[in-house]
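note to self: dont lose this again. the chain is below, predicted strucutre after it. 340 aa total, dont forget to put it in the shared folder this time
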Amino acid sequence: MGGRRSDQRIARRVFLGGMAAAFSATPRAALAQRSPRVAQPPYRLAYLVPASPAANELNHRALFGALAELGHREGHNLMVERRFADGRFDRLPALASELVALKPDVLFAGGSQATLAASKATTTVPIVFVAVSDPVGIGVVKSLPRPRTNATGLSNQAEEFQIKVLQLLKEAFPSASRVALLHDPTNLPLVQMLPRLKIAAATLGLNLRTIEARSPEDLVPAFELLKSDRPDVLYVLSAAFFVSQRGRIVELVNAQRQVTVYGQNEFADAGGLMSYSFSVVEQYRASATFIDKILKGANPAELPVEQPTHFELVLNLKTAKAQGVTFPRTVLLRADRVIE
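---
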């Protein structure tokens, strides 16, 4: 009898001790699950962009220069794995999966397509993105103030920005009525906003017609179509492969003496007539701060998505003179930069 009572007392103490340990451990376990993983140097950064290394060079230098200023130097305390899609968006999902398999501390994604591919490849690796047209609409974050996912970064206010370009286009070329939009149909956020852009254009007295090009091979047929249609103004929307082909696009445009407005400032620098854009280079530079915070333990789900606050209007007067274009004085005064 005494032996059984002793055994029962021991079993009861073990049971109560186990319950106490379970109760005391539960809050700590839950807290550990909520707390972001703090990376240890050398940090591992994955880098995914849709462009080629050459087309991405300025952006690349901006990001890694800013990281170095924050103390993250490649070859010292930072290891980097890079993947470039060379303008082939269909390669992005496989490249994103390759990078996720390497278990990076942060995955950087440039542009909407790369960000979407990264988001589908992982829900646990922190993602920092730049130049995403509609991060909520494509599902990579729940909201801009509180992403509540593993992704955060910088958006580009795509719809408001495109409407502003149309307004500037009308101010620069008041008699224009027929406008062709050259766009990449694989850029889903832009495709989804096209009906709203057409409505906005109509209020400005502009009739929009879309022309698609999803690869370098599509450019010549697209410009043959433009040559026969001859719109008053061509608007080249932002697209990663357009930027990588900007020299060729500007050459085709100028050969046809087609009045053209561009959605990225790299085109004006390459000889394009007029451009209006936020600075993609600045977004790459600013993304270093997000990467730095996450490496130091910040949770991407709680880091608000930032939007551009400065846009730049660039006029190329050398090209304007060659095409016989004269900008209204109001547009000249508004220009942030003039190329002569």
